[in-house]
Request: fold
Amino acid sequence: MNERLEYMRLEDEKDVRALQDITSKAFHFTPPHWEIYFNRIGTANFRIVRRQGRVIGGLAVYPIGQYFGGRRLPMAGVAAVQISPEQRGYGAAGFLMKSLLEELHDEGVPLSTLYASTQAFYRKAGYEQAGNRIQYECPLVYPKNGRSDLPIHPVDPSHHAPFQSIATKRAGLSNGQLDRNETMWEKIATQKDQIVYAYLIGEESHPEGYIFFHQEKSTGLGYSLHIHDMAALTPAAGRALLDFLMGHGPIGRSAVWAGPAIEPLLCITAEQNFQVKRSMRWLTRLVDLRRALTLRGYPDGVEGEIHFMIDDDLLPANCGRFVLSVGGGKGAIREGGRGDLRARCGGIVPLYTSLFTPDQLQALGFLQAGGGVLELATKIFSGPEPWMPDMY
Reply:
């Protein structure tokens, strides 16, 4: 049933209504939810698939930036991939993803990242595990660490400019953080039927941290703090942030937030009394492999060359032998080479993002290389744990 499939943008209001109907059934969107979602993403950032002229599925694309090795790369976040239930099982979803990746490659977009509803399907499209999103819950019962000297200011959550510089600094010290656009900041600053509170930590002219959260009622008179995002760039800001959270007790029962697998804030709590509520890994696709390797940042003081040989079933331009030369924190590509490190394109995603070491990936069968190559690759792709608090 693939012979009459077409991939395209939304053309008219009829297409919008058809996509709304399919999306609402697939993700249980109410009409108000769909309207908010559609307006945030924008008409130009939806794609649809037709069979014999009829809209049978679609997806949404977030044009955004993502940080790796301290540098921002253009990235296409993919969300709300769906095919109408009666049309599933005939290859439409695979066609939709392949068409999107070809479009992104033609536009020179190096990366695409998504949260997978089904990992096996997206692995077939070349996506692989790339970073963490761990949801924690911590009771607000610890003694305060002593009053922090840093002031904490309530601010308007809808004005994201004061938070942007802090988020950018955090992103440069991490792997996987988003360079949030207006849409993503709006998601951080809002919650359906809830008031979102935002605070800056430190002097208003030179803030060192921030927090966004809303409250949800729990048993009795209690409530929990659901943190949309928080950041602390200095030890003083970290202590002030923790004290601020604990100050909501005892009526405030717990704080819930998303962070990395190795969460620094939990190192300064009085006890290890937290729980992991949910563990997720987002997936990344190296769309334009050579450009992704060139634009990524690399550790200072590390120099060397890795000779790659890559296979990619969907994007032939990524295939073949090439050499990555690294020096001065930057990478450069030249074609050819010995092909010392062999992998499918998806197999080097966890290497690229620093989620796993080369030795771990070889043990998993994701790549093949000799000992000297693995040692150099470990140095070149070393870095902080990839994670992000955002979902889309």
Remarks:
- The chain has a mean pLDDT of 95.
- The chain has eleven helices and 18 strands.
- Residues 288-380 form a domain with the Nonspecific Lipid-transfer Protein; Chain A fold (CATH 3.30.1050.10).
- The radius of gyration is 22 Å.
